[in-house]
Amino acid sequence: MNDPEFQKAYEEQNERDYIRNAMFGSIVSIPLQLSCLVMDHFMYGHIPGLFATFVKVRVFVALLTLFVLLWFKRSESTCPKRLFGVTWFGAPLLMVLWMIYYVNDPLSPYYAGLNIILLAMGLISPWTYKQNLVITLFTLVMYVVVAFSMKTAQPLNYMLNNTTFLFLTAAFVVMGSRSNARQRHQEFTLRWELDKNRRAIEESNRKLMELDQAKSRFFANISHELRTPLTLLIAPLENLMARFSRSADTETRSTFQTMHANGMRLLKLINDLLDLVRLESGRLEVRLAPLEVNEVVKGLASAARQVADDKKIQLVTQVDPALGTLQADRDKLEKIVLNLVFNALKFTPAGGRVELRAEKQEEEFVLIVADTGMGISEKNLPNVFSRFWQADDSSKRKYQGVGIGLALVKELAEIQNGSVSVQSKEGKGTTFTVRLPYLKAEPAQTAQSEIANGAPPDANVASQEWLANLYRRAESFPALTARPDSLNPVEPTRNGERPKILVADDEPDMLRFLKSQLQQHYQVIEAVDGQQAVDKAAEFLPGIILLDMMMPEKDGLQACREIRERASTRSIPIILLTARADEETKLNALQAGASDFLAKPFSTTELHVRIRNLIESHEYQLKLSKQKDALESTLEQLKATETQLVQAEKLASLGRMSAGIIHEINNPLNFATTNLFTLRKKAKFLAPEQKADYEDILKDVEDGIVRVKNIVSDLRMFTHPSSDDQDDVEASEVVASALRFLSNELKDKVTIEQKLPDHQSVHANKNKLIHVFVNLLQNSLDALRNKPFNNGERPTIWIEGRVENGWSCLIVRDNGPGIANEHLDKIFDPFFTTKEVGEGMGLGLSICYRIMQESQGRIAVKTEVGKFSEFTLEFPVKA
């Protein structure tokens, strides 16, 4: 770590460790030196004068170490630190080297003392490995010098053996000191980081405490500042309600009541916040006074009974007579009971039950509030009494609030040396139990309280009592007005020109206010949640929609998105209303498809202007859309008319050309028919073996002439449609005539199945209708020739008639190959055909289509490739 502050701190820590370990080494070294005298006695006690010399040397070294230790403790200078740190092991080291030299004994075991001193130095002294390396090298060199300077001969192997052990000890000391130094550095780094984090946490904690104190002061100040103007608003409002409630109209009284109820709700919220601040700062005092429990509890229940009746909930109160009169803080007790009761009423559905019980259990005053509501899940039970906590904190929650009621109950109970607990089962209900110490009121205290209450009040006391009464009445107001489960049905407006406006808000007071402001100019449709808003927007198609941002079921953003996703409501302008005015909320609203955004509180004048502008813009867009549709429709009609004119001109030109061709063809046909008759007469002059071929040739010629005649007839009918009179024609006669014309082609080739009702008639020209049937039957015959039949299936034509829904229907169906889908929209066009060249001109179905139009009827086709074709002729039934 390259932090200069860290390096400085690490060096200071090393200095402290160095001094501490040196002092420890000095304290340990002195008794060890003196204890070694025993070893000296056993080793050299038999040599006269040697033991005494060793005693003097060891005592001198011990006294020197003690002197340095005492001198260092008394000295204020930092200079002798290193000198002091060397003394505790340096003096014994030199002493051992001198003793080895002095005894002049190559076999002396005193070299082991050098090993012990080196190990102690490495373990105790916090030196770097370089410093330890210098000391160990010095020791090795000095031992070698002492060994070679002895006057007696000494074995070389013995000296090498001792030197080797000293060298290994020195190596371990150096390596150990290196590892020890690294470990010390890591430990100091960890302690440094830990201390740094601890200091940061302490600083953060200090700032948090300051912020918490500032928050408490802010809440206390703002609550006091809000209570004053709010009280000055409620007092004149109550005065106006008392003076003009009888003479004012219904709308004015409703406005007064809404203002008063919401003012009291706001005052209750401010009082709760102020109580929390006082509890947190420890400035909320418990004021005990005699209290008649039965009277207080039942009075509180009556204050909540209106809410229970509005929600159709049974509110039951039970008070144990054994409670009697006790010492309690009336204000705190009322807040506890009302918070619990209103909380139970809020989460209990219609038809449920809420119980309020006051009991004496041993030496405790117990309040129990039980309901049959929705219950609390097991995972949420630990958080019930947490401040500002709510099980559902989304923008779609059904039950609104700020989450301080139950937290206030817990803290008010604890400040009175009591407790509160909760038991709940999801879907079954919840029970809150408050336990307070039972303090029986003495008769003298009760009498004293009555005397105090009977004293004549002065002006200041009366004012304080009025404020206390106002605050107490504010506690009896629930946090929110009960939301209706259903709304009044939408009534049709008397003035059909008034535009519709859909207003969706889950707060009834806001819904009533918006309706009262808008119903003079608009037909107001109400919704109490996001799902109702989506459904009613699709049902009534209003001119504009007002959506609150936070609603149950679906919030304003989701409802806005779903309205935009539906084609029928996509273009309806939407205004989102919300108490949040930050940029993120505005962007989310616009991204969801809102046309405009209005933050609460808002001006009704601004609301009217925005609504009027959006409605006018929407109506203008609708007009433009209608004009666009009308123009597109007109353009399509013009295109269709142009196509018809072109087609009519083509057909007229074709008709003129066909008329000339028909005229030119008729004479040759007559000549051919006359000559054919002559040729048939001459067949009797031919030899018998030539007659068969001759007849076949004449038949082929006759068939060709007949086909040409049919083509000429179709062209004549196509180019010169007649306007013959129409009459009621029997369907069976028309079908019989058509079958008779085609009898030769149908005989033994196709099965005909008829199902015609008796006396079914159609209004048409009989000859033209026969022509239609001949064309349809001929088409079926041509189709049946081109289909192979297997598994015993025979070519069949079904002819059916029926009368239904004011139409007389004739149906021709065959089991031929059917008509391809790509040809269905062209089969009635002139000259369209799928037959081979020479097999037809494609005029048959076109003529059928024209004849049906002349008869004011219609022709339709239904087919399935490979299975059947079915033509239906429909004629209107004449009265």
Write the SSE topology.
Blueprint: H1 4-44, H2 50-74, H3 81-103, H4 111-124, H5 129-148, H6 156-244, H7 250-281, E1 289-292, H8 293-310, E2 314-319, E3 325-328, H9 330-346, E4 353-361, E5 364-371, H10 405-415, E6 419-425, E7 429-437, H11 443-454, H12 459-475, E8 500-504, H13 508-518, E9 523-527, H14 530-540, E10 544-548, H15 556-565, E11 574-578, H16 583-591, E12 596-599, H17 604-681, H18 688-719, E13 727-730, H19 731-741, H20 743-746, E14 751-755, E15 761-764, H21 766-785, E16 796-804, E17 807-814, H22 844-854, E18 858-864, E19 868-876
Provide structural commentary:
With about 900 residues, the protein is an alpha/beta fold. Helices cover about 60% and strands about 15% of the residues. The strands form five sheets. It has a five-stranded mixed beta sheet with strand order 2-4-5-7-6, covered by helices on one side. Strands 9-8-10-11-12 form a five-stranded parallel beta sheet, with helices on both faces. It has a five-stranded mixed beta sheet with strand order 14-16-17-19-18. The model is unreliable at about 390-400, about 445-450 and about 455-465 (pLDDT under 50).
